[in-house]
Structures are given as C-alpha cells and as structure tokens.
Amino acid sequence: MTKNKTISQITTELACKKYSVTELIKEYLDRIKSENPKLNAFITITEKEALQEAQEADKTLSQNPNIFLEKPLLGVPLAHKDLFLTKNIKTTAGSRLLENYLPQYSATVVKKLSKAGAISLGKLNCDAWAHGASGENSDFGPTINPADPTRVSGGSSSGSAAAVAADLVTFATGTDTGGSTRQPACFCGVIGLKPTYGRVSRSGIVAMASSLDSIGHLTQNVYDSALVLETTAGPDPYDATSSNLKVEEYTKLLKKPVEKLKIGIIKEYQDGLTDHDVAGSFALAKSTLEKMNCQIKEISLPHTKYSVATYYIIMPAEVSSNLARYDGLRYGHTRDLFGDEAKRRIMIGTYTLSSGYYDAYYLRAMKVRQLIKADFSQAFADVDIILSPVAPTPAFKLGEKTNDPLSMYLSDIYTVTANLAGIPGIAIPTGKNSSNLPLGVQFLANHFQEAKLFNLAYQFEQHLHA
Amino acid sequence: MPETTPIIGLEVHVELTTDSKMFCACSADHFGKEPNSQTCPVCLGLPGALPVPNQKAIEATLKLGLALNCCVNLQSHFDRKQYFYPDLPKGYQISQYQHPFCSEGQIILDSGKIIRVERVHLEEDTGKLQHTVESGKKISLIDFNRSGVPLVEIVSYPDIESAAEAKEYLKKIHQIIRAVGVSTADMEKGQMRLEPTVNVQINDETGSHFTPLVEIKNINSFNFAATAIDYEISRQVEQFSKDKKEKTASNKQTRGFDNNRKTTFVQRQKEEAKDYRYFPEPDIPPFVFEVSLIASIKACLPELPENKIQSLVSLGVESKYAKILYTDKSVTDILYHFAKNMPDVNIGKLASFIANKKIRVEGDVYIQYQALTRQRINDQSELEKFIDTVISDNHRAVTDYQNGKTNALGFLIGQVIKVSQCQADPQTVSRLLLEKLGLGQ
Q1: A156 classed as catalytic
Q2: What residues in A contact B283, CB-CB < 8 Å?
Q3: What is the least distance, in Å, from the CA of A330 to any CA of chain B?
C-alpha cells in the first residue's frame, strides 16, 4: 500500500483518507520488523509511542482536514540517528558507553519535526559518536547496505541511509561532520543533505566536532529534502552558532529556471577519479547538466589537497574535548567502553592540542582551513554550484577497510571540504553500477544558498528520471 | 644580611551578580539554595547541550575592565580550558586564554605606586564538592547550583611587594567592583576569592636569587591574604637559607592557607607546567566589539571611589575623612550642598564633625554646625537673663521639676539654648539653672 512513498505522496493520501495514519505507521512498523533484522538499521524501535502518536494524529486529522497547513509532516514516519537526544527514549550515540542513557530533553530538531507532525519510529544505528565512514564502528553492529548484504551502508549516518533506502521510514535525520549524511546517502542511493553550518540547530545532538557538525537529513527525493529543511532550519536560542538568516520557502523555488546557472567542476579532483563507476557517474551528471543548458566551468581549489589532513587535525581535537564529559563518573560506564576509533581520535586530538604542538598542528590547520574557505569564496564568485563526486568508490565490502583506518579516512576526501568551509551540499543518486550498487554525485553551494542547491538538484533529478 | 624583595601577584575571582548563569537561563543566585535545584542540561554538561553567552555578564566584564583602567580588546573569544575534576561536568571550563575581554589596566595605591592589571577575563564557575559521611561511609557529593555562574578573573602583574600593598590593592579592587555594581562581592559568600602568587628576590654576596613560586589558593578575606603572604615571605626566605633552591619552570607549588595556625601548607607540587590544552570554544562565535559600544559603556560608568575621594578633597575635606565619608551618599550630598549654598560653612570642619560623629546628618546639620562653631556665651549675667525668661514662661515645667520630675530639667535647658539662639553653653546653663531652681526652694 505505501511502499516507497514520498512525504508529499503520504500527506496527500492521508488528506484524502486513502489510509489512516495508524494504518500507515503499522505498515512501516511491520516492514521494520521484517527487514531490520537483516539490515540492523535501528538500535531502538519505539512502536508503542509511534502508534500512540498515530492515533492522536488520526484524531487531529479527523477534526481538522486543513491541519497540513499547520503540520506539514503530519503522520509522516521518520526515525532519528541515535545521536539526536529524544526525551525519555534511549539515546546511545552508537556507543555502549551510553547504552542505558535516557535523555532529560529532546534535540531542537526532534522537537521541531514532532511539532510538524512527523512520527518517530525509533533510533537509527550509526558509527559510535559518529566516528566512521562505514557504519562498522557502531557498538551495536554494522548496518547492512540494502542494495547488497555484503557491503557497508556508509557512515556515520549508516542506519539513516539504510532505513530510507529500504523504506523503513520516509525520511531520517542525520549529521554530517565530514560527509556523514552525503556519503551513506550515496552508498544507499538516497538524497543526503548537509545544510550550511548554522542553518540547523545543533542543540540536543551529541557533539562530534562542534565547528564542523552540520545537521542534515536523508530523504527519497529532493522535494522532501527541501520540505524537511523548511521545518528544521532556523535560529535557536539554545545554539549560539545558529543563524538568524530567514529560512526560505525552498519547495516553492524548485522550479525556477536553471539554464543560466554556472556549474563548477574542480580541476584538482579530476586526476583522482580512478574508479570506473565513480568516473562514469560523474560524467553522466556533467552531460545531464549540459543537456539542462547549464554552463560547465572548470574551477580551481588550490588548497583542497590539504583538506583531509586539515580535517583530521581539527576534528579529533574537538572530538577529544567533546568526549571529555563522558568522564567515567556519569552515565554508568567508564571510559574504557570507548571503542578503538574514539580512543584513536581522543589521543590524536589530545596530542595536537598539547602545549608545544598546538601551533604546529591545530593552529596551522585552522589557518589552512581559512585558505580552503577562501578558495571556495573565490570559486563561488565564478560559479553558482559546484559538482563533485561524493566518495572515491561505491559502497565497499564489510570488513574491507576496518583494519586500515587511513584508507577509511581517505573515503572522506570529497566530502570534508564542505564541512571545513561550512557550505551546504546535497548528495543525489545518479543510478546504479553493473552490480546494482547505487552511484551518486553531490552539489555544493555557497553559504546559505540552499534554495539554489535544491533548485538545481530538483531539476537534475527530474532530468535523470525523464 | 641579604636584601630581600617579595614579588607578589594577585588573581582575584569575582562572581558577577547577574540574574542568570553565564551560558544558560538558570538562576545565578546559588548561595544557600537546595543542592542541584538550579540546574539544566547546559550547566550539567549533558550531551548535546550548548552554551549561549549571557550578554549582561559580558557587559559587566567590560564595565569592570574599564573601571580598572583596562583596554577592551575589540576582538576576543572564549576558549576551552581542559582538565578533569568531578565538579567540572564537561571536562573543560569555558574561559578566556589568549584574547581576554580586557587587558592592561592599573590600580594606583595611596603611595602613588602603580600596580598593573594584566587582564580581566570572563569564565564560568564550577560546581561544588561536598565531602561527607553517609551511613558510616565517606562520600563526596556534587552540587551543580554554582556550575556556570559567571566569574570574572582579575589578574595583576607581580608588582606588589608587601602584604600591606596586597591588602590595599584588594580593597581598592573591592571598592571598584561594588561601585560599578557588577557584583556584591560578598567575601563571606565566596563571591570574591583571592589567590596570591608569591616568591622572593634575595640579593646576597653571590648575586640575585629568586625563590620558587608559590600560589596560595582560595582565600576569602583580605586579612587572611595578608597573613598568608607574610607567612609565605618569611617561610621562603628561611627555606632558601637552608636549601638555596631557586625558581625553575617546573617547581611552582600550590599551597593552601590554614587560618587557625596562620600558616600555609602544600597542596600540590606542580611537576611541570599544567597543560590545559586551550583551544577556541567552537560553540560560541567570536566577539567583535564596536568602539561606540565601549565608549557608551565608559560614559555610563558611575563615579569611581578614587574620583569620589578626590572630588571631596577638592572641596576642602581632609583626605583621611574623604576616604571614610565617600561611600555614604547622604553625607556626600550634604557636603556638596553646603559647599555650593553655604559660603559661611567650612567644609573641612563640617566633614570632620560628621566623620567624628559630632554632627548627626539625620538632624538639622546647619544648627548643629553652628552650635559647634559659634562663640559660646559664658557671661553669667547675660545667661541669667535668658534663664529668668524661661523660668517665668514655663511654670509648669518648673513645678514638674520641683515635684521630682528630673527630666523636666532637660526641657528647660533646651529652652534656654533656644532663647539664646543656640549661643548659650549648655553646661553653664545647666549649672546656673540648677542653682536657681535649687536655691529657689
């Protein structure tokens, strides 16, 4: 009845009483029960709460058929990455250290989505503390790629990507510190949004690296992505880094003509496109854009080659600090429950912030970060949108990189730059390779240019499916 | 005898008297409140909670900095100071390191000596540990009511050379804090905490030597600070005469103060400079202050103690009285009023009468002043005329007195003084009146 429905399909059909919210939610819960054991996308399933909310939503809907104007996501099933605090519902951050943690409050985004009527079906698996690019760092087991049970779903928003791809939820929240929504979205074949830093409140979301964390979501299509951001974006009195800039009506701007848009492709990335599938996907995207009469222009980001090095100094420094609060006195567990990856990052971060090393590492990395930002502002003086690959390869095999952290880190090569610069990006599927693995590209825009980003991504999506 | 010069620097922590805490909306008024009754995710350091800076606290810090003659740094930011302690729920304290809000100020002692202020920065207070015994078991409890209360740190350069100078510097800082109104700075409530750092330069025949640095923690009275400093100076000189140990980069010691024994004791030997791994707080955007904002804060600063005293002195008040009287607004109002409107009043004299409690400012100050300064009438025949008038006009009081109501005498004395237009000497009047009434019987 409801397989692979988008948000707008669901709300339309709920409005014309094709099915009730309860029927809808039950069907999703049934699908979770049958599919999740294979995928391990959920850490916690909140069936009771979801059904109760569904009943309430049905009641609201029967009383007020125009409720969708007020609650644009009424009845829509979603789930939250387990980094998002949910009041009185277990929130683990993918780590055993928080395996029994019941938050006293909910994240701003959780509250906003709930107020908009969306119904949470549970908490989604992720790499512990969002550290990872494969989902394999979760203390609750890896998430399996719905397209291929031998492959990873990407990370760290592993459960979010797999759940949306397998239609266990209509959309899911995610966080993106170095690519953690875009890369798993690409690996699983769904839309992954990383908004501008500060566009969406970080309050109530377990912090990974505070200056890089961007709060995004994964959806079935671009329209839904724009619709969800209309709800989640905006200033928050509980987050001093949230922006006061007006939130645009992204969904109303999707059909603006894009013919004259200038699309940049990054000179420095061209040599690295060694993977046949990734190169093919990139070429397809480029030719599609040309067919859309966009103007393709080569640009240079001279400092982009330092991105991964810069990221892997700034990020662990902030991680080491943000994980200090799990000090062994609180939360019921001691620090030896941190996994290898968290320990690795705590040690690297502690080292680079130590006196005598700070100038050589952290301070220098912050300077390079400024140069990378400057590269982008220069580029965006020339072009409207940048087209880039998302990851160097399609979804890799489970276990393939677990013993080689460095090669795992390098899978972030195309994504971390957007986090360093604080700009928005959206990963969008382009099709599948010969082994049926999803492929995709990403678009990047200048700060707070989400409207432009959605506008192009939406029409790109239409052209691909035409 | 070697020549010794103490080298003393002072760190002063002041809790700002703001309504809410530094980074959340919890009440900052924590004294005597039920433990953990004023907390929220932010000041408990719960996962996902983010600090949002309190604008009022920042303005208060700028005010205080300006009152201490500091420069406001146009660009500054918060840093994370990282260390583990159970009363620090985030594992770091939000403080300021390289870019404090204010720096390079000064306090001038009465001797004219300048004590330079290195910096005035803003940070958050920690929770409070309570060590207690529960069911026969020693336990430690944490109260987070104080966690996140705005705390200003005022750091001096080591320009102070004696306990007396330290005390004077602290008193002046205390007066300024209260004058600016940013904190009640109640020492007994721990709203102002003092940390002297002390060592001694010893010059002997072999040259110049510096004893190892000692930081004395958490003192809550000016007298204790002075006692601790004096003790520390003599202890260090004596210690040096025994072991000749000099200051190194790694032998700084932290000591506590025992008020009962009037001594200091070792708390921690710093093996090496403590590494707090400071880095800019990413959760709070950096601050850029407009010059106009600083100018307007400066323009709105209340008159500072030093200036108040100076302007009293310029009216003719002796400086020793000016220092006593400047805090009482009703007194200074009177002094200014008389200086402006009563050219026949000597302001220096008036101030000394008030300071010596010869004039009660609640009453008619002018009459009291005149009474104290006018030439007294002691001429007996003239006084007797006044007394006779009063006796004949106040039969009832006279009868009362003669019937044993002794307090009627006071009334009659007052009447005589009144009739004399305050020129009669009360003692002489009393004697003459008694003679008349007594002899009359």
Answers
A1: yes
A2: 210, 239-241
A3: 9
At B396, is the pLDDT very low, low, confident or very high (cuts 50, 70, 90)?
A: confident
Chain B residues in contact with A323 (beta carbon < 8 A): 91
Residue A121 has pLDDT above 70, yes or no: yes
Closest approach of B90 to chain A, Cα-based (Å)? 4
The pLDDT, as a whole number, for residue A345 is 97
B57-85 per-position pLDDT tens digit: 999 999 999 999 999 999 999 999 999 99
The more confidently predicted of residues B418 and B144 is B144
Active-site annotation holds for A81: yes
The predicted pLDDT at position A351 comes to: 96
Q: Report whether A335 contacts A327 (CB < 8 A).
A: yes
CA distance linking residue A29 with residue A243, whole number of Å: 36
Backbone angles phi, psi at B48, to 5 degrees: 80, -10
Instruction: Dig out the tokens for B18 from the structure.
Output: 């703001």
**Cβ <8 Å between A241 and B283:** yes
Residue ranges of the alpha helices (H) in A331-363?
Answer: 340-353
Q: Which two tokens stand for residue A247?
A: 């939130």
| Residue among B220, B177, B221 nearest B17 (CA) | B177
Domain boundaries, chain A: 7-465
- Taking only the tens place, the pLDDT of each residue in A370-410 is 999 999 999 999 999 999 999 999 999 999 998 888 888 88
- Distances from the Cα of A273 to the Cα of A303, A306, A457, angstroms: 18, 17, 22
State the CB neighbour count (10 A cutoff) for residue A51.
17
Task: Report the residue of A87, A215, A330 to disrupt the B interface, i.e. the one with the largest count of B CBs within 10 Å.
Answer: A330
CATH superfamily entry for domain A7-465: Amidase signature (AS) domain (3.90.1300.10)
Q: How many CB pairs under 8 A join A and B?
A: 89
Using CB atoms, pick whichever of A241, A329, A354 lies closest to residue B275: A354
Which residue, A70, A89, A53, is CA-closest to A15? Answer: A70
Provide mean pLDDT across the span A164-190: 98
A34 is an active site residue: no
CB contact (8 A) between residue B47 and residue A93: yes
pTM (predicted TM-score): 0.88
User: Average pLDDT over chain A, rounded to whole?
Assistant: 96
Helix (H/G/I), strand (E/B), else coil: A107: coil
Residue type, B161: E
Give residue-wise pLDDT tens across range B166-217.
999 999 999 999 999 999 999 999 999 999 999 999 999 999 999 999 999 9
For residue B190, give the DSSP letter. Answer: T
Instruction: Write the burial class of residue A356 (CB in 10 Å: 0-12 exposed, 13-18 middle, 19+ buried).
Output: exposed
- β-partners of residue B216 are B255
Domains of chain B: 3-294 (no CATH), 303-373 (no CATH), 380-440 (1.10.10.410)
